[in-house]
Design goal:
This protein is of the alpha+beta class. The protein has 14 helices and 17 strands.
């Protein structure tokens, strides 16, 4: 059992770790809080001192490419309809649907978002009020894995902390949970003060599972036998999707904000005045703004000059950065221009990089879900006295891609014409092949079940009658 001092020590060490530092950067960029927000400009004054320039324009605009790329990957991964945890056993599928419902998909959406943006994220199991195991997202920033002292492989404890609310004097109230293989201990901390046992919990420490049997007032306890936290990694090194494109996004921010600064600083023309008839320059400025005229001597003159801003170079660099952000971020660029011939082949070609990225994530996701499914199967077997195992389950991720409706209609027409040709060819073989074989082959072409239609077809009345019955049977199907 960890002491309060050890718990705080592990939390503080984890906050300053390289892994969490990089994860926080990814989270910050996903929330459109880029490094450009802290950009400052300096210059050397007349005394040679470096001072901050607070008079020049300093536009700070974040361009959330990373937010779009993360949401693209997550939503594309979960775009298919229905459950992605499948079984050919109808009873087992009904049981699985109770666990992997819309609530689970919502939690998995948060886990995937955190995984791609921060590099890794967690989900944990808990017992729901309806006596079923449920699963909930746990923010990886607040999860600390404590390893055994003699090995780096086995996790002895998981510390999960989060900010519950803001108390008096804007103090953060933290809830801290310490999980082991048998129970969970709850703590509360006021800001960075002393760690105390949470008195709001009636049972502390609390076993993983607490339940009551019908007709029995006694309270029963169970344990999972393992720490019910499941981690999903974005890659082997737990790097976020930001790593290969952060410099490109920063460069785009710099080019775009620099252009905005130039436009703001040089949007007014410069007046070159010769032979001004006045006492000071303030009078000149007032006359230009209000009267739109000034007095000069006979040899004087006023020239209005403008500054040409070199925006073409910045614009070209921004376009190149944008292209590379989507290329190396392996995303779908919806602003990409084509030649106007947007066929299904062209659309699919633009999804190639996103497909590759999702294929890599799917491998990690299936391994992650396998551990969760095993927990569910054990509970199903215990509740329904069954003997299901993981070989009875498979994962089916159907990703939806936008398509060209005209292309789809043309493909359907070609398929219909192909089937018609095949049917006509089979009918032309009447007299060479027996009627039953012809009807069986026609069923294969029309994707009909011969065994289901066999009793409805009377071959004694001839092939034409059988063909009519077949059409009626296909309509019933």
């Amino acid at each position: 059992m960890l002491s309060e001092v050890e718990i705080l020590q592990f939390i503080n060490e984890d906050k300053t770790s390289t892994k969490k530092r990089l994860a926080k950067i990814g989270e910050r960029y996903y929330e459109a809080d880029h490094d450009i927000r802290s950009y400052r400009m300096f210059y050397f004054n007349a005394d040679g001192e470096l001072v901050e320039d607070k008079k020049r324009s300093n536009v700070k605009i974040s361009h959330p490419f990373f937010t779009e790329l993360v949401d693209q990957e997550v939503q594309y991964m979960l775009s298919g309809e229905g459950s992605f945890v499948r079984s050919d056993d109808r009873d087992l599928q009904n049981y699985l649907d109770e666990y992997f419902d819309d609530d689970f998909k919502s939690e998995l959406n948060d886990v995937l978002t955190g995984t791609v943006s921060k590099g890794f994220d967690y989900m944990y199991a808990y017992k729901r009020a309806d006596d079923r195991t449920g699963f909930q997202h746990a923010d990886s920033i607040g999860v600390v894995e404590v390893r055994e002292k003699d090995t780096d492989d086995k996790c002895a404890y998981v510390i999960y902390w989060y900010v519950d609310r803001i108390g008096k004097e804007n103090k953060l109230i933290k809830r801290i949970q310490v999980w082991d293989t048998k129970q969970t201990t709850y703590y509360v901390q006021d800001q960075e003060g002393e760690l105390k046992k949470d008195e709001d919990e009636e049972l502390n420490p609390r076993p993983h599972v607490i339940y009551h049997k019908e007709g029995d007032e006694a309270t029963y306890y169970e344990e999972y036998g393992f720490i019910p936290f499941f981690r999903l990694d974005n890659n082997r090194k737990q790097f976020s999707g930001l790593k290969p494109i952060k410099d490109l996004i920063d460069d785009y921010d710099m080019m775009s904000c620099g252009l905005s600064n130039n436009l703001a600083d040089f949007d007014h023309p410069l007046h070159v005045v010769k032979g001004f008839q006045g006492d000071n320059l303030d009078e000149l400025a007032v006359n230009l703004k209000t009267k739109k005229m000034i007095g000069v001597d006979p040899t004087g003159d006023v020239e209005i000059r403008t500054v040409d801003i070199p925006y073409q170079a910045r614009q070209t660099k921004m376009l190149e950065d944008e292209k590379n952000i989507y290329r190396f971020g392996m995303g779908f660029n919806s602003a990409q221009l084509g030649d106007g011939n947007v066929t299904n082949v062209v659309i699919k070609s633009r999804y190639v990089l996103l497909d590759l990225k999702c294929n890599k994530l799917e491998i990690k996701l299936k391994a992650f879900l396998k551990n969760i499914v095993n927990v569910v199967l054990n509970e199903i077997n215990r509740r329904y006295d069954s003997d299901y195992d993981f070989t009875d389950v498979y994962f089916d991720f159907q990703r939806e891609v936008m398509t060209n409706a005209q292309d789809n209609a043309q493909i359907e027409l070609v398929d219909a014409q192909k089937k018609q040709t095949e049917v006509n060819t089979l009918l032309s073989l009447a007299g060479v092949i027996d009627d039953e074989s012809i009807i069986q082959n026609i069923c294969e072409v029309m994707d009909l079940n011969w065994h289901d239609l066999k009793d409805k077809i009377n071959l004694d009345d001839g092939l034409a009658s059988a063909e009519m019955n077949l059409e009626l049977g296909g309509a019933d199907e």
